[in-house]
Amino acid sequence: MQAFTDARDDDTPDELWVVEHDPVFTLGQAGKPEHVLAPGDIPVVHVDRGGQVTYHGPGQIVVYPLLDIKRLRVGVRDYVCRIEQAIIDTLLEWNIIATRREGAPGVYVAGAKVAALGIRVRRGRTFHGLAFNIAMDLEPFRRINPCGYAGLEVTSMLDLGGPSGMDAVKPVLLGELARQFGLRLQDAPASGDPFLLPLAGAGATHSNPTP
Prior knowledge:
globular; BirA Bifunctional Protein, domain 2
């Protein structure tokens, strides 16, 4: 992400990277180590996004939007709100009512966090992104203060009555992200995965790199 962002120019197509990480805790630039309570055998990786500590693992959709928001004429606050709204609208497809919380980026259902955001913007271009809990083991979240909040409850779509697999959610989420930014999804010319489609419009593409 860093290399892509540093190398891109005004004509570089945007990309969405969609991954599913092995178990890992990530600690943002301003992250406080004391929020990592008992990591055990799960590695802790310091990353250059905003925010505190969160957990990534199997059963969680992680999307890294690599967008030129300067070209899209979208401010940083609006960018965060649009990502949150894409997740909220995705949850609504399964009749799950979600909200955002002032001063605490992410998406919540009945006070429990179902999706976390951690972004970085450099020269008007975004990297890092969102982590959306679909059907995952939530136990590792008890080893940290999620996003720096002691006792913050974390949930998943499965626990909220949603689908048990990610394939149902991916195309809905990517479609909602595209809609929020006035872009459209295209077939990937070399991808065998019908759910990971390239982003197009304003010169955008999609890739699915190795985590």
